[in-house]
């Protein structure tokens, strides 16, 4: 394996691609401080902050001394490669130019979207109206259920036959279910139908308390035999508890409306 195809080289090429658009389309940052220079190109604190945030998202971009040294070294390598004499001509090649074009517009699109979101005003009346809308749309019942998950329809049909013959659902689930709830007898606890995938929710909703499905139910996870143990009236969260989520929903709807306007006004 040659150096150019080594894992380190491949990783470095990906890092180069991730920052090329920033190198070629950087605007002056008045408040940013130059931290180092590579081949005459100043690399400021704003670029370094973005780099750290992209590499350490779980740490909020906060690096310890060892991480900082490594990340700065990687960033220097990116600028060393991107400032070579052939970089400008390579940027004009179809594949590279397309990536730069897409990344630049993606970054700008995110910036514009964030500005639109920041300018959206949401009133308490709109939050209250969204609350009422979601209450009306919410399923009226919660369910308590168990299930047995198997790989094939035939296996599920055999289980239903065993249940018809008097087998205990919980014991069958412990013995046969491949799902994570198998060891607990297939227990799913209480849930709202909209928390489950559609075929599963539809099957539970049509059952009576204490009954199990007479035919297997297929989802993307496999084949289910479902026992609906109990049901109760759903209790929605209070407006105060739900406010943050409601505000986000209203904001998203208004953003979607604004985006629809921009789509309609866009020229070909």
Tell me what you see in this structure.
With 268 residues, this protein is α+β, with helices and mostly antiparallel strands. It has three domains: 3-119, no CATH class; 130-134 and 237-265; 139-233, Chitinase A, domain 3. Helices cover 55% and strands 15% of the residues. It contains ten helices and seven strands. The strands form two sheets. Strands 3, 4, 5, 6 and 7 form a five-stranded antiparallel β-sheet that branches. A two-stranded antiparallel ribbon has the order 1-2. Strand 1 and strand 2 (41-44) form a beta hairpin. The two termini are 48 Å apart. Residues 1-6 and 20-29 have low confidence and may be disordered.
Strand count: 7
Straight-line distance between termini: 48 Å
What coarse outline follows from CA principal-axis ratios?
elongated
List unreliable stretches of 5+ residues: 1-6, 20-29
Helix-strand topology string? HEEHHHHHEHHEHEEEH
- Alpha-beta classification: alpha+beta
Supply the number of helical segments.
10
Rg estimate, integer Å: 28 Å
Kindly state the percentage of residues in helix.
40-55%
Provide the descriptors you would attach to this structure in a database record.
single chain; 268 residues; alpha+beta; 3 domains; two-stranded antiparallel sheet; 7 strands; 15% strand; disordered N terminus
Give me the secondary-structure topology.
Layout: H1 7-24, E1 34-38, E2 41-44, H2 45-55, H3 65-82, H4 87-90, H5 94-119, H6 124-137, E3 141-150, H7 153-164, H8 169-176, E4 187-191, H9 198-206, E5 211-212, E6 217-219, E7 222-233, H10 239-265
Helix pairs in contact: 1-3, 1-5, 2-3, 6-10
């Amino acid at each position: 394996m040659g150096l150019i195809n080594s894992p380190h080289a491949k990783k470095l090429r990906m890092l180069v691609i991730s920052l090329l658009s920033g190198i070629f389309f950087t605007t002056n940052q008045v408040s940013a401080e130059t931290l180092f220079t590579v081949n005459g190109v100043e690399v400021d604190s704003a670029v370094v902050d973005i780099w750290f945030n992209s590499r350490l998202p779980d740490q909020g971009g906060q690096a310890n001394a060892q991480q900082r040294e490594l990340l700065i070294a990687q960033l220097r390598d990116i600028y060393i490669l991107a400032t070579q004499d052939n970089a400008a001509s390579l940027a004009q090649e179809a594949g590279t130019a397309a990536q730069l074009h897409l990344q630049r517009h993606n970054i700008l699109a995110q910036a514009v979207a964030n500005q639109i979101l920041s300018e959206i005003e949401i009133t308490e009346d709109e939050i209250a109206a969204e609350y009422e809308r979601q209450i009306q749309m919410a399923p009226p019942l919660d369910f308590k259920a168990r299930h047995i998950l198997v790989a094939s329809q035939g296996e599920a049909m055999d289980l239903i036959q065993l249940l018809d013959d008097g087998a205990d659902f919980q014991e069958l689930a412990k013995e046969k279910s491949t799902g994570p709830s198998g060891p607990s007898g297939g227990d799913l606890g209480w849930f709202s139908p909209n928390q489950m995938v559609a075929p599963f929710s539809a099957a539970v909703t049509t059952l009576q308390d204490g009954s199990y499905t007479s035919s297997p139910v297929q989802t993307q996870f496999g084949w289910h035999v479902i026992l609906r143990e109990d049901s109760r009236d759903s209790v929605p969260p209070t407006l105060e508890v739900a406010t943050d989520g409601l505000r986000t929903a209203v904001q998203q709807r208004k953003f979607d409306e604004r985006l629809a306007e921009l789509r309609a006004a866009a020229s070909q």
